[in-house]
Amino acid sequence: MAGSSGLSVKTIVAIGIGSALFVILGRFASIPSFIPNTNIEVTYALLALFALLYGPWAGLLIGLIGHTLKDAIFYGQPWFSWIIASGIFGLIVGLLTRRIRIADGEFGGMEMLRFNLAQLIANVVSWLVVAPVLDILIYSEPANKVFVQGVGATISNTLTVAVVGTLLAIAYSKTRTKRGSLSRES
User: In degrees rounded to 5, what are phi and psi of residue 15?
Assistant: First the structure.
């Protein structure tokens, strides 16, 4: 039973599905970049969409759980600085897109702009601040290395979410009946 302080069953299911999809996409839809240990990831488009649809807690948990499982399964051990950054990314997107009424079929030009500003802010905070700083503090990584990785991740994730995430959100919104309209006739 979910009260006002808990997550709904729908959100919990979304977290499970989102985390599993994060792992799958992280394995099969990850494109190596010219920056070592930094890939072009479709996973963040999916994470941004789930954060938009299910809110900041879902975004946070999908980022944390999905990235932890992906690292553990495919790399043998979790890299916590980037796991935390993934969770922060989902949290920020979810917080900044709460007023977009995509479930009511609303995802026009203004909503696209708000969604993309939210994901840009989330990417900058996550990959230019959180991940590099935690890499230095947790793993004693060299600053020049982790900030180059952060710039690469910020650019690639922002572009991926802008294209793939926006297209996914548009497609989803088209499956919804617009608020205040009559039901669609067959």
Answer: -65, -45
